[in-house]
Amino acid sequence: MGWLFVLLAGSCEVIGVIGLNKVSQKKNIKNFLLMEAGFLSSFALLSLAMQTLSMGTAYAVWTGIGTVGSIVMGMLFFGESRDRKRLFFISLVVFATIGLKVIS
Amino acid sequence: MTKYWIYTLIAGLLEIVWVSGFKYAHDFWTWAGTALTLLLSFFLIMECLKKLPVGTLYAVFTGIGTAGTVVTEMVFFHEPVRIGKLILIAILLAGVLGLKALSGEKQGGEA
Question: What confidence tens digit (pLDDT) does each residue in B70-89 have?
């Protein structure tokens, strides 16, 4: 269950970051709620994940999914660059995450 | 300028405290401390965002958080030292830092 929770926590963080970007463009209640809901559920799920996973692993994977997820969303929906360097670093994060799952 | 880098360092150290709280907090006061350090570390980072380059700021902050939690759990919470895990976390951190550095140099807003 810990791995499921940390995956969901990372996804919620991406939602929080999208909310944060929207708040920085336009400050209204809807955008603010999206940001708050994203980050709060992300923290709650991370805490749940840590009940079974080691703290260092859970934190690293959470940060990794949050970062990669935000960038992939930017590539897919906001026309950000897909250059090779970015794809290379994304593959490092994915590789390390799978590796941590395998050895845990 | 230097003042804000010191704030970044403090925010990173507070981050280690609240992340530890997420795993080890067990009563009202430890959870209250966790929430307080979380808010304080976010407040400091928001202040630093006004003055420092965003890519570098996030890289330093995330680096301290990741390395810090790994070291903290081994030193203070008796987590076994496993080389494979440390190497994989280092690879993951390299990926995250690379991505943050690239987005900092390009448009500096997101992620």
Answer: 999 999 999 999 999 999 99
Prediction ipTM score: 0.87
Global pTM reads 0.88
Start-end of H helices in chain A: 2-25, 29-50, 55-77, 84-103
Helices B54-75 and A55-77: crossing angle, nearest 10°?
Answer: 160
Return the structure tokens found at B72: 């903290």
Q: Which residues of B touch A (CB under 8 A)?
A: 19-20, 22-23, 38, 62, 65-66, 69-70, 72-74, 77, 79, 82, 84-85, 88-89, 91-96, 98-100, 102-103, 106-107, 109-111
Q: Taking a C-beta distance cutoff of 8 angstroms, is the pair A72, A90 a contact?
A: yes
Query: Are the C-beta atoms of residues B57 and A47 closer than 8 Å to each other?
Result: no
- Asked if A81 and B62 come within 8 Å (Cβ–Cβ), the reply is no
Tell me how crowded residue B33 is: count the other CB atoms within 10 A of its CB.
14
Domain count, chain A: 1
Give the C-alpha separation, B23 to B108, whole Å.
32
Report d(CA B70, CA B87) in Å as an integer: 11
Round to whole Å and give the CA distance between B11 and A92: 26
Decide if B44 contacts B14 (C-beta within 8 A): yes
